């Protein structure tokens, strides 16, 4: 069985960093994983792991922009359309990997997830190839500094989830940037997220965050805006689809927890034949001699 994890989320959310850490974790746990780069604009030198499959071998944004005179966003759309027309290329490239995690590092253009048919079509193709697929959606912890920004992030996660209809895990990335010092009044006044209790209200989004704060802000008094807010609060209350797993890459347990959720979502290994134990390598017990 092959497993694909699509690593998605807005620009700069930490997708490439997470993909790299995920691979390192798999390697150290003696599992196999491979990087698939789906970002036609990615800088090749920036990969710590050489992607085994790279969309840039098929089509690169640079060429598309240079030769066809597209801008960066139109160019990205062109690249993905080109990929979808050349699924046999991807299928052939994916052919050699068995019983492996394939980690798809995706580009950060949010419109790719919310209203283009590319990812759903890609997912259909992966499942036709017999590859079990899930997606993780990363939102960075800075989104919690502003409730409105945060809820717009929640709504885009929701919209991407509904668009893709595959097993899905939302991750709050860069948790190392969040301080939990409740005794820092300047901090809590500035961003309102400090303190464990408060963080919990974001990880499991509490729509009241939106409802209460809006009432307190006299400067925004447009009643239509208020009604819209109420409607969003109601939507999130009625459809609590989105909650976040915190990811702090400075804490190995945190990464392990996230990966165990991915394994569980994927039902990783559940229908595998029992594996032969690894042959002992020279040096495995070196420290016992
Ligand atoms: N503090 C902190 N910084 C992080 C973490 N993960 C990523 N970053 C930083 O955030 C920036 C963006 O990280 P990337 O991994 O390139 O993010 P991305 O989602 O792949 O970005 P795009 O591909 O451009 O959409 C880089 O400067 C990273 O060093 C994290 O866990 N903690
Ligand atoms: Mg990236």
Automatic annotation (TrEMBL):
Q: Which organism is it from?
A: Piloderma croceum (strain F 1598)
Q: Which InterPro entries match?
A: Gpn, Gpn3, P-loop_NTPase
SUPFAM superfamilies in UniProt: P-loop containing nucleoside triphosphate hydrolases
* Domain of life where this protein originates: Eukaryota
What does the UniProt keyword field contain? GTP-binding, Hydrolase, Nucleotide-binding
Q: Name one Pfam family in it.
A: ATP_bind_1
Query: Residue ranges of region Disordered?
Result: 268-289
The UniProt function text for this chain reads: Small GTPase required for proper nuclear import of RNA polymerase II and III (RNAPII and RNAPIII). May act at an RNAP assembly step prior to nuclear import.
CDD domains xrefs: GPN3
- Tell me how this protein assembles: Heterodimers with GPN1 or GPN2. Binds to RNA polymerase II (RNAPII).
Listed GO MF terms: GTP binding; GTPase activity
Q: Which protein is depicted?
A: GPN-loop GTPase 3
Do the record's keywords include Acetylation?
Answer: no
Regarding protein family, the annotation reads:
Belongs to the GPN-loop GTPase family.
């Amino acid at each position: 069985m092959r497993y694909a994890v699509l690593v998605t989320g807005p620009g700069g959310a930490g997708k490439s960093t997470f993909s790299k850490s995920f691979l390192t974790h798999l390697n150290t746990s003696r599992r196999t994983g491979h990087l698939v780069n789906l970002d036609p604009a990615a800088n090749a030198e920036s990969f710590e792991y050489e992607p085994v499959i790279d969309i840039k071998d098929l089509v690169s944004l640079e060429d598309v922009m240079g030769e066809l005179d597209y801008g960066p966003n139109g160019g990205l759309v062109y690249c993905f359309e080109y990929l979808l027309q050349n699924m046999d290329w991807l299928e052939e490239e994916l052919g050699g990997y068995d019983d492996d995690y394939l980690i798809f590092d995706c580009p950060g253009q949010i419109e790719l997830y919310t209203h283009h048919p590319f990812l759903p079509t890609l997912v259909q193709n992966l499942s036709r190839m017999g590859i079990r697929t899930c997606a993780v959606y990363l939102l960075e912890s800075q989104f919690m500094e502003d409730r409105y920004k945060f809820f717009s992030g929640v709504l885009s996660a929701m919209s991407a989830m509904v668009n893709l209809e595959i097993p899905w895990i939302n991750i709050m990335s860069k948790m190392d940037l969040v301080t939990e010092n409740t005794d820092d009044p300047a901090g809590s006044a500035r961003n309102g997220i400090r303190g464990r209790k408060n963080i919990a209200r974001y990880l499991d989004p509490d729509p009241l965050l939106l409802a209460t704060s809006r009432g307190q802000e006299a400067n925004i008094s447009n009643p239509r805006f208020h009604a819209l807010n109420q409607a969003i609060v109601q939507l999130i209350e009625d459809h609590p689809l989105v909650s976040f797993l915190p990811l702090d890459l400075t804490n190995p347990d945190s990464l392990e927890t996230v990966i165990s959720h991915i394994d569980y979502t994927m039902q990783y290994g559940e229908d595998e034949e029992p594996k032969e134990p690894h042959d002992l390598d020279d040096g495995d017990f070196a420290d016992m001699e």
